[in-house]
Amino acid sequence: MEPRERRHQRIRQVLLFFVFLGGSLVCSEPWRYSVAEEMEIGSVIANVVKDIGLGVEDLVARGARVIFDDYKPYLLLDQQTGNLLLNEQLDREALCHLTEPCILHFQVLFENPLQFFRAELWVKDINDHTPAFLDKHILLKISESTAPGTSFQMDSAQDLDVGKNGVQNYTLSPNPYFHLKLQASDDDRKYPELLLDQFLDREKEPEFRLTLTALDGGSPPRSGTTLVRVLVLDINDNAPEFERPVYEVQVPENSPVDSLVVRVSATDLDAGIYGELSYSFSHVSTDIRKTFEIHPISGEIHLKALLDFELIQSYTINIQAVDGGSLSGKSAILVQVVDVNDNAPEIVMTSLTSPIPENSSPEMVVAIFSVRDRDAGDNGRMVCSIQDDLPFLLKPTFKNFYTLVTELPLDRESQAEYNITITVTDLGTPRLKTQHHITVTVSDVNDNAPAFSQSAYTLRVRENNSPALHIGSVSATDRDSGANAQVTYSLLPPHDPQLPLASLVSINADNGQLFALRSLDFEALRAFEFRVGAADRGSPALSSQALVRVLVVDDNDNSPFVLYPPQNGSAPCTELVPRAAEAGYLVTKVVAVDGDSGQNAWLSYQLLRATEPGLFGVWAHNGEVRTARPLSERDAVQHRLLVLVKDNGEPPLSASVTLHVLLVDGFSQP
User: Fold this and answer.
1) Average pLDDT for residues 119-139, to the nearest whole number?
2) Which residues are CB-contacts of 152 (< 8 A; sequence separation ≥ 6)?
3) Whose CA is closest to 592, among 604, 583, 607?
4) pTM of the entire structure?
5) Exposure b/e, 25-39, CB count within 10 A at least 16 = b
6) Where is the Cadherin domain (predicted)?
7) Which of 483, 487, 481, 478 shows the shortest CA–CA distance to 412?
8) Which H or E run includes 377?
């Protein structure tokens, strides 16, 4: 990526690279095991417990598993014994074709703690294929002027086996004119050449039929034959010659079928049929014949099948030009397959842990996965990333494996679930990317105490209430979940030991509703306060407190009480008034009290009945009894006044008192 592009890239990227780790994470030297191809399924290959030096119980406890580089389950790890068992019959030719040795790379992965052991499985070849010639009939046209010692190349037999099980020898049926000579190609494959022992005489014997036999080195050996037909021709003394000894071409792997690869050309100085050339492949493999075709007249080579750089990166094609006299010239074509970015990166999840507790330690392993891109060069180089706003981090571990770990503390109450997108992008043109979505949930830990909606509550209750009356509620919430969020309410012991709280109120432990247990009396208890607690059901449990103040509201349940004149049942008290008293003269004052409060205790006075109406009056607000007019001789001596004292409650309550007034002469005002 160019520096300018990196400045605008906001996604954290982790470049794929092979990390060679030591210590306890990765075994430094790989183990090597071998198995013969086509061995029966279930065969024991080795025992990893002996190689690692662990106990069998560690295999299950540490989550041991076997992972091959191509993600195919060739082997199965028996976690009860530690044996590596063959999970499928292996075909060496299908796995490695002609590559020798045939090695399958794999790792033994332990998840907890994370540890890798590298290993190699060598698949040994058995002699299960017979040599076969691509052509059942070989036609050779040889001029009668051909000198003894001249050699004639023939296509080699194909044997899918390798090593000693491949083609090792060729034999020719007995005849007086030819014998075989074995040659080795650049890839050490043997092919036969037919050598002429003496001059041919077309007039004596114009044609020969020989049997060519190919034998492999197996035990017992296998063999295949082809018929060699030799036609003796007239003299031809010039062999074809190609323009170049080697043609080098590059072909993109996405070239369509029938695309022109190259056009070869050879010349022959002879004339007539001896100068007429025919182009063909020379002892090439089956893969080449399936992929390419050559036009015998024009020398144009076209694609017969699609190319795949990831399977084969180059081809060496041996070609020959044969004239009408069977003389040949040889050349080679080196075809380099050019990689095209036609493979998107691949993501394979090995393990995923979800949910994870919110108090997880930093760098806790959440997921293990591997990535690969089958292309080469920049097309196969990859960048691995996740979103930038997550408390997680990608860390490269071993080869193409990554771990997703926690980077920042988690808080379930802030976010209980994370949708993580793992994006792998190659550096090819155009860039290809693959995304894998995982969901990681955060499990709750009891880290939040219940919180009351108010730190203090004030409740008002009218006195004379009925027992078990619902007087109010307190409420607390807990940000945790499950049992950690289930709140239980309780009354806490009061600070005042004289307060009989247990007989006054109770609380519903489930919903925080408060109830008065008995009837309250404002005159006896006007207010009281206590504390309530809210505890969750976590382990350990967390709790909080709130203050509740209960105010008893007065009810008009007390009638006024007259203090003066006294109402003790003794002889009535008589008030003396001089006849010379003027209007407004203070006769006496009725004094009364009310046990209630507020407007229930506001008293008013009223004269209900008098011996002589209009002579006396009572002031409504203070209870003073005064003369309403001047006294006269005609007024009676004795008077009886009935005064009503009434409070301001709803409904109002009242009391009455009788006053006795005596008018006297010669009485001076005190």
Assistant:
1) 86
2) 140, 142, 193, 194, 195, 196, 326
3) 604
4) 0.53
5) ebbeeebebebebee
6) 142-242, 243-347, 348-452, 453-562, 577-665
7) 481
8) none
